[in-house]
Amino acid sequence: MGELKVLDHPLIQHKLTMIRDYRTGTKAFRELVDEVGTLMAFEITRDLPLEEIDVETPVTTAKAYRLAGKKLGIIPILRAGLGMMDGVLNLIPAAKVGHVGLYRDPKTLEPVEYYVKLPSDIHERELIVVDPMLATGGSASAAIQSLKDRGAINIKLMCLIGAPEGVKRIQQDHDDVDIYLAALDEKLNEKGYIVPGLGDAGDRLFGTK
């Protein structure tokens, strides 16, 4: 089964507290989500493979290490996932970016795919799916399935906040996907919002209602 990893780094937790605060305005909220995205990317890439090379320093030749050419891809789920994308790219600027757009059918409440644009070689890439909230898990599960249907093999899911219900859904539907959260919250309320959560991430990122 894929692992659940809650990233308890002090800087992540400090910034997440400010993200949760209802008094945090759109500009600050957007900047904080961006910063936490970078910090989480630092943790999620901890196990990337390295290769040893020779490098000329101003003094002598040294044995050193560089990334072993592993291809990465960042896949934000539209629209709120866009708020975390730049934060990850700050750390991994060479990563390719794909997009998966989903909306919830008002009658069935099931996610409906309306847009997918991906790198042509996703089967060769380690993909990081990003979305601030893992609530019911329906959208994230559908996005992951969409990637698998197009040939993706190696997928990780990165969210700011998750609910137990969403984590369980991903683990049931995609037991090969590791989940990275900044916080695992208590539950979902009757409207499907994470409690205590941070409200609607998309609205707070983009200043909409």
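(ticket continues) Second input and output from the same batch:
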Amino acid sequence: MNLIPPSTKRSAGRPRAFDRNVALEIALDMFWRRGFEATSTTDLTAAMGISQPSLYAAFGSKEGLYREAVELYLLRYGTRVQQLIDTKGSAREAVAAILANAAHQYTDSSHAPGCMIASGALQVGPAHTDLLTQMVELRQAAQAAIKLRLDRAINEGELPKRTDTSSLAAYFAMVIQGMSVQAHDGATSVSLKRIAKLAMEVWPEANSSD
């Protein structure tokens, strides 16, 4: 989908007006596809059809624009893991649904491939380490949500008492992040769903010895 708004006629000498929401949509797509470092302010302003002073006036800085793009991403996609945890009956159903959802969402042609949070700001310069910290914290929060559901599964008798829920949650988080990279490299929904199904084979059986 082309997010760049069509040009409009304007009077000579008047500053070009732009839709801030459309500009944010463009920034989200570019940051999602390229990452923070690889997306320059020149790239952004060219895609938005505005000047750098206009970008700074609207968003403060490239970093400020990135943070707003992350907020928009989270608003649309960031709550899905918790929603599945809350709505699925068993922990196994919830984790399987999370992986299946990732396979579908990361390959959805209506937006950039992969996950902006899983792949976002993996490497940044010294001046932007706070962005890296934010992305790490968001990834850790998703992993922590899965761990809490696994802990509950032990108390409910769904998982053996000996289950290392920290490692199991980290494993599923690793699979999710790997699926994001695979999608970015062109993997299909079908291939990612196969990976998701294979990943579930490590699920500990409740009747195994504690």
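Agent notes: Confidence is low (pLDDT under 50) at residues 1-15. The longest helix spans residues 129-155. Closing as not reproducible unless the customer responds.
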